[in-house]
Design goal:
By secondary structure, this protein is an alpha+beta fold. It has one domain: OB fold (Dihydrolipoamide Acetyltransferase, E2P) (Beta Barrel), CATH 2.40.50. Helices cover 20% and strands 38% of the residues. It is built from five helices and seven strands. A five-stranded mixed barrel has the order 1-2-4-6-5. A hairpin with a 5-residue loop joins strand 2 and strand 3. The longest helix is centred in the N-terminal third of the chain and has 16 residues.
């Protein structure tokens, strides 16, 4: 009976280790559960120093002497931290770090998940309009290897619909050559 119990414990540990959040527990402890992005966007000065869990679509990477600025469109996150789709509160934000982040790795179109401390607001031109960006100092950052599927079938439906990538023209037009079993590997990560 002890061998069966040990085998069950090992199998369960292996199963649940694949279901961990992409941000470490230490970084998650710093996140303020009462701070809401929509409120931070309205009045960033009232939330200075508060840490939020954020994620979204990477739009631009700007490198300068002080470090790197990532321009990100806010997405909702699933329980593991993967960006799913545009957030209703919407908007863009700037994630700033004093480290050099290579623009060839942080290409527009990829997704990021991060913890960010509110450090202020910055107004930048966006398509001819002055747009106020909340600015966050990056605490921990996870770059996803491939964008999540906003359109088409969600990843958890994939084994139930094996014909999807082969017979669905909608799928092929958005995700040619997509392999869902490899999409959780990070390209780059720092803590």
């Amino acid at each position: 009976m002890n061998r069966i119990s040990l085998l069950l414990v090992v199998l369960m540990a292996g199963f649940f280790s694949g279901c961990a959040h992409v941000i470490s527990n230490e970084a998650m402890l710093a996140v303020d559960p009462l701070a809401d992005y929509a409120q931070v966007k309205q009045t960033p000065a009232a939330y200075l120093g508060k840490t939020l869990l954020l994620g979204g679509l990477l739009v631009d990477t700007q490198v300068n002497r002080e470090g790197t600025d990532l321009e990100v469109i806010l997405f909702t996150l699933d329980r593991w931290g993967r960006p799913l789709g545009p957030d209703e509160s919407g908007g863009r934000f700037i994630a700033r770090t004093d480290r050099f982040l290579d623009p060839e790795l942080f290409k527009p179109g990829l997704h990021v998940t991060l913890t960010g401390k509110v450090v202020g607001e910055e107004v930048r031109p966006l398509k001819g309009v002055d747009y106020p960006y909340p600015v966050f100092a990056i605490g921990e950052l996870h770059l996803w290897q491939s964008p999540s599927r906003i359109y088409g079938y969600p990843p958890y439906y994939y084994p139930a619909y094996p014909w999807a990538p082969y017979y669905d023209p909608f799928w092929d037009s958005y995700w040619p050559g997509y392999n869902p079993y490899w999409d959780n590997r990070p390209v780059w990560r720092y803590r």
